[in-house]
Amino acid sequence: MAEADVFDDGPAKEPNMAAGHKPLVNENPRNLVEIFYAGIGFIEAYGWLIIFGLIFVMVLWTNISKPLKKFFQGSKVPYNRDVTDSMTTEQVEARMVAMDKARQKMQDRYNEQATKMSAKRKEVEEQKRLQKISDHDALMSGKTQSSTHHKMEQVRF
Fold this sequence. Notes:
It is built from four helices and no strands.
């Protein structure tokens, strides 16, 4: 008879019912359904915007990620590290001599350019002075002012 009880198609009993427990039932399925439908409604309303936004962020990230990494990582060598720390005294002295030679060469080049520019400026000033003298002499001798006046108009405009 025990076998007949196992295969009996009678009313199903919950295992915890015998102990006096309530059957397990989801008491608030309406909240879950409302959240689900709210999510579906949001996707229906803003789905294309979300897709385009994600595509834009992906394109932006692929184009900017490498420069951002370089910017935030910086150089591998710290800025306050002295290069001469790993050199011998002879190397440091040779480097200082080479730097002094380069500085002197640059200073000589600058001085040469400065003297050329000052000579050119003096030459232009001398030409202007001679032109003024010749214009004054022409006015004193009674010649026409057309050439002088024409030159003055070109300078003004």
